[in-house]
Amino acid sequence: MQQFPQLVRQLIKQTMGQPPNLLYRRLEDALQQGRKVWLETNNDSFSGIPIHLDREFVELLSLAGPDEDESDDSSYKSTTWLLRLARIEAIAYPTEHWPAERFDNLLAEDGTISEPEE
Q1: Cα–Cα–Cα angle for 19, 22, 25, rounded to 5 degrees
Q2: What does 38-76 look like in DSSP terms, one character per residue?
């Protein structure tokens, strides 16, 4: 009867698979938030908004505005990249943009920035 708990643990492990790694979690967050990401592979780099994600692939939608040279064509172009997660070497994503004034105010409140002495 002791084999039953081991069997249950093994079935749960097979069903759930490996826990998601940090790359997967960041891509999942970008997918949920609709944020643009930049991905680096061994040979190339890609950017776009994730539109699909599973354990093996991520699909990125990349939009490009009209070129300045083609002033008569105001259409937008889209490219969808399907990338194997195992081929991704790095990911970059925006976290938050702060104006310099806000950052300085936070540091001043913390006492990190000292006022210039006269």
Answers
A1: 80
A2: EEEESS-EEEEEEEEE-SSEEEEEEEE---SS-TT----
8-28: per-residue pLDDT in tens?
Answer: 666 666 655 555 789 999 999
- CATH class belonging to 20-110: mainly beta
The CA-CA-CA angle for residues 47, 50, 51, to 5°, reads 135
Stated pTM of the model: 0.60
Amino acid at position 49, single letter: I
Strands 57-64, 77-84: pairing kind: antiparallel
Residue type, 80: T
